[in-house]
Design a protein that fits this description.
Elements (H helix, E strand, L loop, with lengths): L6 H9 L13 H18 L10 H14 L3 H20 L25 H9 L3 H13 L3 H5 L6 E5 L6 E8 L5 E6 L1 H20 L20 H14 L10 H14 L4 H8 L4 H8 L4 H8 L8
Antiparallel strand pairs: 1-2, 2-3
């Protein structure tokens, strides 16, 4: 166990691999920035020289309550809570003797609309993209997959088959996302069709540029090598630009996950199943984020075809 860590150093420790001494694989620049922001918020409350291992659960609870006094927006303090909890869990994995976070973090209600990509923007992006990027966007929207799941997709753990009853294609793939726990993500006919077409193009392209076959699903179009984690965010940014979608409208990977969750809940899928499909460790996360709907979303849900009398 690691005996002592100053708050001033905690973000570096939490984001650095103990094996390589470099940033942990899969961490985006935005996530690393969030960890450093949390370290600053902790330093403001406890002081930069405070030993993280001496902070008790009660003190951590008091710290999060102080956030509510300082920041009016629930979304801001909830983001801080979520990142702090993730940091504490990571420190535990690295052998740091930090306090328990069980029952410490209480998230505030967020009365705001869900930032899901709109129907028209989703299709705009698909028609404006190439085969690889269309397959990626469709798969995220149909499976709720995260960027980490996309970057780690393997040919050997992806299966595409035809549904005997409907004749439509189905897809299943094993992914590892947050928490390093594998789960199965599923895709419907559109994403399965696009991925199958992509696999054929991918195979022939690697042969043409004399790159040895490898197990990664998504490759860079200039080198044939596996796409880096950070490249996927760039893909969504490029799709938005090509489709000429206004900057303030959500179109990133997370907005497509929102679309996936909302569409499943509105169709009547149980919250517990949606939570598992989203890869949430705690069903309360799904409940807190996706059952807080605007009046317009509630109206659309009420009049959805699935709920009309037969």
């Amino acid at each position: 166990m690691i005996d002592r860590i100053r708050i001033a150093d905690v973000a570096i420790v939490a984001t650095t691999s103990t094996k390589t001494g470099k940033p942990r694989p899969g961490l985006s620049k935005a996530t690393i920035k969030k960890y450093h922001t949390i370290a600053n918020r902790l330093a403001e409350h406890f002081g930069p020289e405070r030993d993280v291992t001496t902070i008790t659960s009660g003190e951590l609870y008091d710290w999060q309550q102080s956030l509510d006094e300082k920041y009016a927006r629930g979304s801001t303090t909830n983001s801080y809570r979520s990142t702090a909890r993730a940091m504490w869990n990571q420190l535990k994995k690295q052998g740091v003797n930090v306090c328990s976070t069980e029952d410490v973090f209480v998230f505030r209600p967020e009365h705001k609309g869900i930032k899901a990509i709109s129907e028209i923007n989703y299709w705009k992006e698909l028609v404006s993209s190439g085969l690889r990027d269309a397959a990626i966007a469709a798969l995220v929207t149909e499976s709720g997959m995260r960027l980490g799941g996309l970057s780690g997709m393997r040919l050997s753990t992806t299966e595409i088959w035809e549904n005997a009853d409907s004749g439509e294609l189905c897809l299943a793939t094993k992914v590892i996302e947050k928490g390093d726990k594998p789960r199965i993500a599923f895709g419907l006919h559109l994403s399965a069709s696009l991925v199958r077409a992509w696999l054929e193009v991918r195979k022939n392209y690697l042969t043409a540029i004399h790159v040895s076959e490898h197990d990664f699903m998504w490759i860079a179009t200039d080198t044939g090598k596996p796409l880096a984690y950070t490249s996927f965010s760039d893909i969504f940014d490029t799709l938005k630009e090509r489709a000429r979608i206004p900057k303030h409208e959500p179109t990133n990977c997370h907005s497509m996950r929102h679309r996936f969750a909302i569409s499943r809940l509105m169709a009547g899928m149980p919250l517990s199943i949606v939570s598992k499909l989203m890869g949430h460790a705690d069903i309360s996360t799904t409940d807190r984020v996706y059952t807080t709907m605007t009046d317009e979303e509630i109206k659309r849900s009420f009049f959805a075809q699935a709920y009309l009398p037969k």
